[in-house]
Each structure stands twice: as structure tokens, then as C-alpha cells.
Amino acid sequence: MDRVILHSDINACYANIELLYEPRLRGQPMAVCGDAATRRGIVLAKDELAKRAGVKTGMAIWQARQLCPALELVPPHFDRYEKYSRLVRQIYERYTDRCEPFGLDESWLDLTGCLGRADGEAAAQELRRQVRRETGLTVSVGVSWNKVFAKLGSDYKKPDAVTAISRENFRSLVWPLPVSDLLMVGPHTAARLEGMGILRIGQLAAAEPELLRRRLGKAGPTLHAWANGLDQSPVRREEEFPPPKSIGNSTTAPRDLLCERDVLRTFTALSESVGARLREAGYCCRTLEIELRSTDLSWTSHRVRLESPSDSNRELLEQAMGLFRQVHRWPGPLRGLGLRCCELCPAGAPRQLSLFSDPVLEAKRRSLDRTLDAIRGKYGKNSIIRGGDPLRVSD
Predict the structure, then answer these.
(1) pLDDT classification of 34: cutoffs 50, 70, 90
(2) Can you tell me the distance from the alpha carbon of 141 to that of 136, in angstroms, rounded to the nearest whole number?
(3) Active site residue 106
(4) Are 189 and 212 in contact (CB under 8 A)?
(5) Which residue from 69, 198, 241, 357 has the highest number of Cβ atoms inside 10 Å of its Cβ?
(6) Whether residue 159 has a cis bond before it, omega within 30° of 0
(7) Which residue stretches of the chain are H helix?
């Protein structure tokens, strides 16, 4: 018996959530945008009217205004998006306990064997109406026997629609679509496939798997299988997710970083953010990576292996600054920085102690980190901030 898989996508998630708070903007094009004053002035999301005018996610605000002079701009409110994402997922959980989130606005649902849910299309229609009735948001839902085609179905017709892709109709519905519509086919892979003369999903399905493997590596046969409807990946509950490979954060500075003190302040904020996420997830890291973004928007990255796994804010900051001093000689200003923890291991795993470390001082620092996490978790991330430089630096 075939599985019954749904993929539900909240339509224009950020934009439509903002419209719940700003109903006066309904009927006119609007977009959720970053702050241009802090050099994050890009479109994060747009409503259907802005989309029809040609506005795209990731577009600079000035470009969006050229295409749509009447565009209304709204700042992002991520707490609202997380709230409504939770509300919608609670509705999904009434249908099945096998729900797999895919970002804030998308989820797969496996209804196989669920009582009264054998008709996936009918269940999808009911789900669509329920979400709209309880939250005011609309979803597009794809129905199929596998996850890849279910996602294609949710993208096929928007907004507020249901599309069923079956074994009988997938060749006529899916194969004429651009190969870039297939899950995990980004611009780089699409360009390589185009160089092979593969523009449609049907052409990918008919290609020789060994040729795809030689050109695309192990992803080639996987994409060939997906194009033919042979995806067998399960819908995983949240507790079944594999552990993360890395935890990190990056930022674009409000102004160019011109000296080491600028870099220190930025890495201080990043180390505290990443350290808090490590501790919340219950991990330490063995390797630290820093990313440097120049004013011409090019990125470089560098790694260092830690003597001992750590989740300490100070340890992450010291390692980041030490590595930065080794690799950067200030040929010019920096536009942004990133910090990423790799080679994660459980925080409670045994570790080799160092003869040169001070266990009492380390325990105090861990206690301080946890106290900061608790205060910021209760009162907000800006409720307590450092009043001075945590490390000595020279300008």
C-alpha cells in the first residue's frame, strides 16, 4: 500500500502574519524587509501583490521599489512568526504524530494508517480549511506517496490550494516542470544540469544514472530516483532528527569593521549567541570556524581545533580572536563576520582534562554562562549586555 504524505506550506508566511497585525495593508503590495540603515535592506518576504509586480525574496529594497513604487515596507517580527508556526503545527498534530518541520513555514505529514485519513486529498482540504479558520493564514498542500512529490504539489498551485500528485498523473504534472523545481536542486546544480542539456524533471528522470553520478557525485543518482518518484525517505518526528553537524551565526555589521576592537565586539556578540545555542542543544564543539566577509561581498573561512570540547562563551571568543589575528592582516575593512562550531559532541561526554587549565575558574565561567542564558531567556537577549571588552586588544 502506498504511503499518504502531505506537505503543507504557509503561503507568504512572514508577509501574511504581518497582515494579521496590520489589516490596513490588505489590498496593496507589501514586503517584509530588513533595516536598510544597518545594511540589511533586502526583501525577506512579500505578499501576492508584490510577487505579481516582480518583487523577489533577497532583492534589495531599492530594486523592489523600482519594480513596485507603491510597495509598503514592514520590519520583521520573528517572535510573531515563531508563535504562528507553533499554532499551525499544533493543528497538524491533530492529524498525525508523524510531522516533520521544514523551516518555520513548511511541514511534512505522514497520514499512512491514520484512522479516517486514507483519502489524502480530502484530509488536505480539511486541513487547509482548519488552518484558515483558526489562524487566519492560508496554506497550500501537496499530496503524494513520497515527500519529494508532496513538496512539489504544495508549490504547484498557490495560494490556498491542494494539489494531488499520484502514480497515474505524476508524469504529466511533474515531468514538464523545470528541473530547478525539484527539492535540493539549487542554482549551481541546475546550471550543471543545464550544461548537460537537462532542463526539465522528465529529462532528469530519463538520464543515465551513472552519467549523473560522474557529473554530480552521489547526488546525481539520488536526484534521478526522486525525479522518477522513488523517494523512500521517512517523515521523521522531531525526536528522530539526526544531531546537527554544526551550530553557528553570522552578521552584517551596521558599518564597516575598521579595527580589531570592532571585530572583538562583533565576535563577542556572536560567541554569546552561538554558545547559548550550544548549551540549549546540549552540545560542545571540537572545532571552531570563523568567516570573514569583505566589502566586495566575498567570503573566506578559517578553522581551528580546540584542545578540549567546549561550549564556553569566553573560550569561543578567545579562539575566534586568536584565529582572526593569525589569518587577517587588515588589507581593507570587513563588512561582516561569522562564527560556527563544528564537530559537535554531547556536553556530558567524558573529556580529557588539561594540566594547565584551572577547573575552578572554568566552573565559574560555566555558571556565569548559564546565568546569562537564564536572564536573557526570561527578559530578552538585550536585557543584560557586557559593559566592557572581555579580552585585551590593541587598536
Answers:
(1) confident
(2) 16
(3) yes
(4) no
(5) 198
(6) yes
(7) 13-21, 48-52, 61-67, 78-92, 120-135, 147-156, 170-173, 187-195, 201-206, 209-216, 219-227, 260-281, 313-327, 359-379
Q: Are 219 and 95 in contact (CB under 8 A)?
A: no
The Cα–Cα gap between 58 and 326 comes to: 33
Query: Which of 106, 272, 289, 315 is flagged as catalytic?
Result: 106
Cell of 266: 562583533
The pLDDT of 361-365, averaged and rounded, is 81
- Residue 37 burial (CB < 10 Å; 0-12/13-18/19+)? exposed
Residue with cell 511533474: 174
Is there a common fold for 5-10+82-227 and 13-80? Answer: no
Domain ranges, ordered by start, for the chain: 5-10+82-227, 13-80, 246-379
Which DSSP string do the residues of 330-354 spell out, in sequence order? Answer: -SS-EEEEEEEEEEEEETTS--PPP
Q: Which amino acid is at 277?
A: R
Residue 20, beta-bridge partner list: none
For position 393, what pLDDT does the model report? 46
CATH no., domain 5-10+82-227: 3.30.70.270
Q: Please provide the size of the chain in residues.
A: 395
Percentage with pLDDT > 70 across the chain: 94
- Cα separation, 70 vs 94, whole angstroms: 41
Interatomic CA distance for residues 194 and 114, integer angstroms: 41
CATH code reported for the domain at 13-80: 3.40.1170.60
pLDDT value, residue 148: 97
Is 246-379 CATH 3.30.1490.100? yes
C-beta contacts of 299-307 below 8 A and 24+ residues apart: 300/327, 301/338, 302/326, 302/327, 303/342, 305/343, 307/354
Contacts of 12 (CB under 8 A, 6+ apart): 45, 46, 47, 48, 51, 159
